[in-house]
Amino acid sequence: MPDFNLCAGFLSLTTAKASDWVAQLAGRGILCDRRGDQLRFGPAPYVSMAQLNQALNVVEDLAKGLV
């Protein structure tokens, strides 16, 4: 079992479109940030599983070029 005191609280996805995606996600009410080509989500205890699923569904659509 991992030592959760050493774990970070971010999900990072690598994409050359990180900057564009941050803006597109914000337009859909999904807040995240980027560091270079890393699209970063910071799940927190007050973020629901439904919100995380919505964010990942939109990211999937962006990756497929559907939006």
TrEMBL record:
Domain of life: Bacteria
InterPro entries on file: PyrdxlP-dep_Trfase_small (IPR015422)
Descriptive protein name: Kynureninase
